[in-house]
Amino acid sequence: MTEAMLQHTSHLDQPALDLDALNQTFSNADAIKLVQWGAETFGGGLVMSTSFGIQSALMLHLVTQVIPRIPVIWVDTGYLPAETYRFAEELTTRLNLNLQVYQSPLSPARMEALYGQLWEQQDVDSLNRYDQIRKVEPMQRALRDLGATAWLAGLRANQTDHRKTLQPLGLQGGRYKLLPILRWSSKDIYDYLVAHDLPYHPLFDHGYVTVGDWHSSRPLTADDSDERNTRFNGLKQECGLHLPQTAEEAESLNSSSL
Question: The pTM is what?
Answer without folding.
Answer: 0.83
